[in-house]
Amino acid sequence: MSARQASLRFILFTVFLDVLGIGLMIPVLPTLVGSMAHSPDSQAAWFGALATTYGVMQFLFSPLLGALSDRYGRRPVLLLSMAGLGFSYVVSALTTSLTLLLMSRLVSGATGASFSVANAYVADITPADKRGKAFGAIGAAFGVGFVFGPVVGGMLGSVDLRLPFVVSACLSLANVLYGWLVLPESLPPERRSPLTFKRVNPLGALNHLAELKGVSALVAVFVLSSFAQFILQNTWVLYTEFRFHWKPWQNGLALFVVGMMSAVVQGVLMGKLLRRFGEHRLIMLGLGSSALAYLCYGLITRDLLLYPVILANFLSFAVTPSLQALISRAAAANEQGVVQGSLNGLNSIVIVLAPLVGTTILAKVGHLGSGDWRIGATFFLCSALQLIALAVAARHFRRGQPAN
């Protein structure tokens, strides 16, 4: 195995462990908060604060960690981030205070922003024309972690509510030791860039991203598509409960299918799809497929018909890695950290706002009967967002930049 392959495998394993750790907590965190809260209202308020805090810290620290990695190298920032994440899990496992639990989420949100550094590392070691496939592999690792995390977390949580945090801490800290021993630095000193306030300031970093030639439209497509995806993710379970009276196992099965499709498309098929279509056409096909699929989700009145639509929408999983590859090519070697950090920061804003928009709409229509087409309003919005993203992408690609 070459040094590049070994490094890439470590990065993929790191992303998998990070997402697995997040997934392990999903089934138990609400109950853990409830065990320390004094009332249901207090439980809801604290849980909302924990979720919002995590997203805000991701937004603030993604550009900072990316800029630090551009200045000091990817390796130390990755290792320190993983150590911080492990420490936050230890605190979560031991604390009986909601305030300390909130503090641990502050730390995990800040150090969990290392996804941007992982993406920058991959950009460092991967030729420009192969980055779409490499970013697809990261997406696959993310998908597999997302699939198995909640399942394993639920099993561990049935033994003890704090056990998922203990396991997450052990995995993170073990990965720090493994990385210390095997992970080489990917960014040599001569390719590093100085720290400036503009690069570490989230708003300045976003402005820097917008200044890259030919990137603004791609960033708009990225945000629109991500917004639609996160609305879908955060309303799917409620929607299927309201309209089809699904039980948890049915939603678990559907989410498992989605996660495995993501892993297969991004981890196995991405290279073949890129060779067949190229990034431009793949983005267009994926956005068009998503727009049609979301429309169908909102109109379908028989639940079993959801599965053919899910399977037919496989090209949608190729959109994000293709966009990342095109944006990465527009940035210099010493800008990969801040660029990937800015993208991750934008994603964090979307993660905070999309659930608010989606659940607000669903709350307005959730009482309608399953045969009333208006109950699918949330997904109609998602379809419209993907159509707008498709129009922006089509206009941008017709103007010819950036080139495939």
Automatic annotation (TrEMBL):
Gene Ontology molecular function, alphabetical: transmembrane transporter activity
Keyword Transmembrane helix in annotation: yes
CDD domains per the UniProt record, alphabetical: MFS_TetA
Membrane-related topology note: Multi-pass membrane protein
InterPro entries tied to this protein: MFS (IPR011701), MFS_dom (IPR020846), MFS_trans_sf (IPR036259), Sugar_transporter_CS (IPR005829), Tet-R_TetA/multi-R_MdtG-like (IPR001958)
Family: Belongs to the major facilitator superfamily. TCR/Tet family.
SUPFAM superfamilies: MFS general substrate transporter
Protein's UniProt name: DHA1 family tetracycline resistance protein-like MFS transporter
Pfam families assigned: MFS_1 (PF07690)
Residue stretches making up the Major facilitator superfamily (MFS) profile domain: 7-401
Major location category of this protein: membrane
Membrane-spanning parts: 12-33, 45-65, 77-96, 102-122, 134-157, 163-183, 215-232, 252-270, 282-300, 306-327, 348-367, 373-394
Keyword Transmembrane: yes
Protein function: Resistance to tetracycline by an active tetracycline efflux. This is an energy-dependent process that decreases the accumulation of the antibiotic in whole cells. This protein functions as a metal-tetracycline/H(+) antiporter.
Subcellular location: Membrane
Source species: Fluviicoccus keumensis
GO CC, alphabetical: membrane
PROSITE patterns, per database record: MFS, SUGAR_TRANSPORT_1
Keywords: Membrane, Transmembrane, Transmembrane helix, Transport
